[in-house]
Structures are given as structure tokens and as C-alpha cells.
């Protein structure tokens, strides 16, 4: 997978200074990560990167797929993939579309767990699609290209999933608006994305513990995660795109920390999951302390 930390910083004239959510150019600097300013919009409070990312970036996995990539996207994701299937897809049949399906491991999970479902994955990175075809045998299920160009008929899809996708998109609104048209009346879009309140707290703690106070270090993937969502900003995005206010859940974590899967790190993430899930339940679904947002979007 292409290491985004190796991309050169965008020169000043091309740096983004406009909020992707409300369009305002008024913002404060919330954090500097890899030398890139993360800006907090003073109008809507959404946080976005000043890094300029193409709308349809397809360079992931240009350098090939490593054993660490496979371990992270397969083994480390199995628990959350299985839990999502158990909790959100009770029916024996239906139609699911996975956007930004990467190497195809969630599509493969669906093939294994829900053989009665029609499943299609769409991915922009040619290297990832080649891997999904050749290594995972998903030649009929994983497609290279945009969902907007797929020809899928409106009102024909039960579930759309976006696993770690919308934070990469400078302007996710057109995609979400299109996905809404594809849903059946009782269909939904499921979004997984990092939770800004947790991630900024973690980043500030790591910066505090780093005696060098080096703002070139990568804590928040500012060259990759160009939108940093909180529940409030994800709610606004959903409402702006014709969805009702999202509902949220706390699902199991990806069992890796910064790509590493040491036993201590995995147990720490599981302990955090149990604590945040209990807090979510005991607070009547008001306090979300989880590192990740798991949101269900249904048309308004």
C-alpha cells in the first residue's frame, strides 16, 4: 500500500482552506500533523485537512500488497466484520454494495457468511482490484470503477457499506446522495470512520509524551484523512444529503494499533471496546467515547 506519509506537502497556493462541509473559509488550526494543518471551521465546527486530496484518488497499493496489509485488512478486521453481519444483516438474502472495497476482505466475509446475498464491491485502486481477483477469487464480485458509473438501478439495494472511506473523500456529498437513490425503501448506508474527539485526544497525548514535540509525526493521517468526523459533523453531512439523523453503535475494534498486532495492544483495544460499549449503554446512547464512529444512515 502506498505510504501516504511519504507524499510531499502540498505547496501553499494549492492547500485547501475551505470547509468541505459548509463551504466557509474561516477556521482555526486544531492540530498540525505531518506538517499539515488540520483546520476547525469556525462556522460549523467540522475539522478538515489543509492537504489537497483528489476526489477520486486511486493510488493506494501502487507499491503492491504486503503481508502486513493482508494481516491488517483480513485478520485484524474479522471480528468487526462478523459482528456487523450478525447485528445488521439478519436476513438470509438481499443485495449489498461495498464502496471502496479495497482488497475485498469484507466482500469475502459476505460470501462466506451470507451466501444468499448478492454482493458487489467497487474500488478505484487497480492494484487492490487485481489482488481481490487473483488472491481472493472475487472476479465476479469486485469491480474497478465508481459506483456512479455502475448502472445499478435506483431502489434496488438493501445495504451499502463504507468501511474507512468517507474520511478520504474531500466531497462525500455527491457519493452519499447517489447512494441514497440506490436504496430500497427500508435500505440503509452503513459508515465506519474514525471519531475526531477520541483521535484528537489520543494525538495530543502522544504529542505531550513526545519530548521533541515534533509536528511532522503522523498521528492523524492528515495527508490521507482529509475529513475528520465527529457525531455532530457526520449528522450534518447525513442531513445535508437527504438522510435522517444517523443512529450509532459501538462495534468491536480493528484488532491492531497503528498497523501492529501485538498481544498487549490487541488486549488494550478490546478492554477499551468493552468500556466504551458499557458507557454507551449506561448513558442511554448519549456518551460516545469510542475511537470509531459506526453510523447507520436511512433516507429521510
What's the SSE blueprint?
Elements: E1 27-33, E2 36-41, E3 47-49, H1 67-73, H2 78-88, E4 94-99, H3 105-113, E5 117-123, H4 126-134, E6 142-144, E7 157-163, H5 173-182, E8 183-194, H6 196-209, E9 227-228, H7 231-240, E10 247-249, H8 263-282, E11 292-297
Parallel strand pairs: 4-5, 4-7, 5-6, 7-8
Antiparallel strand pairs: 1-2, 2-3, 3-9, 8-11, 10-11
Short overview:
The chain is of the alpha/beta class and 300 residues long. It has helices at residues 67-73, 78-88, 105-113, 126-134, 173-182, 196-209, 231-240, 263-282; strands at 27-33, 36-41, 47-49, 94-99, 117-123, 142-144, 157-163, 183-194, 227-228, 247-249, 292-297.
Give the strand order of the largest sheet, numbering strands 1, 2, ... along the chain.
Answer: 6-5-4-7-8-11-10
Distance between the amino and carboxyl termini = 37 Å
CATH domain topology: Rossmann fold
- Strand and helix order: EEEHHEHEHEEHEHEHEHE
Q: Give a count of the beta strands, DSSP E runs of length 2 or more.
A: 11
Q: So, CATH architecture?
A: 3-Layer(aba) Sandwich
The number of distinct helices, counting runs of at least 4 residues, comes to 8
User: How would you sum up the global shape?
Assistant: globular
Fraction in beta strands: 15-25%
- How many structural domains in the coordinates? 1
| CATH H-level superfamily | Vaccinia Virus protein VP39
CATH C-level name: Alpha Beta
Taking all Cα atoms into account, the compactness measure Rg is 19 Å
Helix/strand structural class? alpha/beta
Low-pLDDT regions? 1-13
Major sheet: 7 strands, mixed
- Average pLDDT rating: 91
State the helical fraction. Answer: 25-40%
Amino acid at each position: 500500500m502506498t505510504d501516504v506519509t511519504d507524499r510531499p506537502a502540498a505547496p501553499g497556493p494549492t492547500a485547501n482552506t475551505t470547509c468541505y462541509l459548509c463551504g466557509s473559509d474561516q477556521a482555526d488550526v486544531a492540530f498540525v500533523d505531518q506538517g499539515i494543518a488540520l483546520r476547525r471551521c469556525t462556522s460549523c465546527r467540522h475539522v478538515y485537512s489543509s492537504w489537497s486530496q483528489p476526489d477520486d484518488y486511486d493510488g493506494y497499493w501502487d507499491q503492491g500488497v504486503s503481508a502486513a496489509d493482508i494481516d491488517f485488512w483480513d485478520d485484524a478486521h474479522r471480528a468487526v466484520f462478523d459482528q456487523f453481519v450478525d447485528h445488521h444483516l439478519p436476513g438470509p438474502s438481499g443485495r449489498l454494495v461495498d464502496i471502496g472495497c479495497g482488497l475485498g476482505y469484507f466482500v469475502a466475509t459476505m460470501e462466506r457468511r451470507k451466501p444468499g446475498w448478492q454482493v458487489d464491491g467497487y474500488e478505484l485502486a487497480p492494484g487492490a482490484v487485481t489482488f481481490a481477483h487473483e488472491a481472493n477469487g472475487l472476479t465476479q464480485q469486485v469491480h474497478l470503477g465508481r459506483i456512479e458509473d455502475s448502472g445499478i438501478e435506483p431502489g434496488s439495494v438493501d445495504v451499502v457499506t463504507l468501511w474507512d472511506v468517507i474520511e478520504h473523500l474531500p466531497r462525500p456529498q455527491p457519493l452519499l446522495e447517489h447512494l441514497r437513490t440506490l436504496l430500497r425503501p427500508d435500505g440503509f448506508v452503513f459508515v465506519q470512520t474514525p471519531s475526531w474527539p477520541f483521535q484528537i485526544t489520543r494525538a495530543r497525548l502522544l504529542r505531550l509524551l513526545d519530548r521533541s514535540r515534533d509536528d511532522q509525526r503522523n498521528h492523524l493521517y492528515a495527508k490521507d484523512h482529509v475529513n475528520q468526523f465527529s457525531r455532530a459533523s457526520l449528522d450534518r453531512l447525513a442531513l445535508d444529503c437527504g438522510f435522517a439523523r444517523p443512529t450509532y453503535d459501538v462495534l468491536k475494534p480493528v484488532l491492531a494499533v497503528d498497523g501492529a498486532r501485538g498481544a498487549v495492544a490487541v488486549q488494550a483495544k478490546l478492554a477499551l471496546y468493552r468500556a466504551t460499549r458499557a458507557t454507551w449503554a449506561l448513558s442511554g446512547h448519549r456518551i460516545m467515547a469510542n475511537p470509531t464512529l459506526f453510523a447507520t444512515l436511512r433516507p429521510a
